[in-house]
Amino acid sequence: MDGRAALAGSGRLGAELEAVAERLRRITVRLRSGRLGEGAGVIWSHDGLVLSNAHVVHAEPLVIELWDGRRFDAQLRWRDPRHDLAVIAIRCTGLPAAVPGDATALRSGQLVLALGHPFGLGNALSLGVVHQPPADLGRNRWIRADISLAPGNSGGPLANAAGEVIGLNTLVAGGLGHAIPISVVQRLLQQRGERAA
Description:
The chain is α+β, with helices and mostly antiparallel strands and about 200 residues long. It contains two helices and twelve strands; from the N terminus they run αββββββββββββα. It has helices at about 5-25, 180-190, and strands at about 30-35, 35-45, 50, 60-65, 70-80, 85-90, 110-115, 125-130, 145, 155-160, 165-175, 175-180. A hairpin with a 7-residue loop joins strand 7 (about 110-115) and strand 8. The protein starts with a helix and ends in a 6-residue tail after the last helix.
């Protein structure tokens, strides 16, 4: 491949990543819990159902800020500390919503993206690769990725290169980001009678 072809390929890849990043920004919210807590969440349905981590949602009031700057008082629907999942609702319709991907199809080395608000920085994007997919760890285990996460990323999306949400970022351990597989989230939502995305 000559230099011009390499540059053209690089330009296409950059444009594709930029488009995916923009879609993720639109489904990622900033979540404030109480006076000091802050994290991220994922818009799960067009009428205002939002997913985040239970450890992010620890106090009231809950306020959600959308990508366009609109803010809403939020209501906690339920919280599951064991799985570190919280479901929140805002009164808003016509929202962009996450497109769930297949976390069970993940393979080591696949590109993943995370979006959140690390250290208060709004809509920061990180790129990395799958270190260990949940299929290698048994049922209901984490997606482990070699990706930069920090406080403020919790509850935000972990997505594949197509922009499909494959997990919710939860913690960093052993230098790796850990995310709850979206298949686990969907199962918990179904058990609670929540609608699917």
